[in-house]
Amino acid sequence: MRHLMSPLDFTTEELDRLFDLANDMERHMDKYAHVCDGKKLATCFYEPSTRTRLSFEAAMLNLGGKVLGFSDAGSSSASKGESVADTIRVISCYADICAMRHPKEGAPMVAASRSNIPVINAGDGGHQHPTQTLTDLLTIRSLKGRLDNLTIGLCGDLKFGRTVHSLIHALSRYENIRFLFISPEELRVPDYMTDMLKEKGIGYTEVIRLEDCIGDLDLLYMTRVQRERFFNEEDYVRLKDFYILDKDKLALAQKDMLILHPLPRVNEISVEVDDDPRAVYFKQAQYGVYVRMALIYTLLGLENS
Ligand code: NCD
Question: What is residue 215's three-state secondary structure?
Answer without folding.
Answer: helix
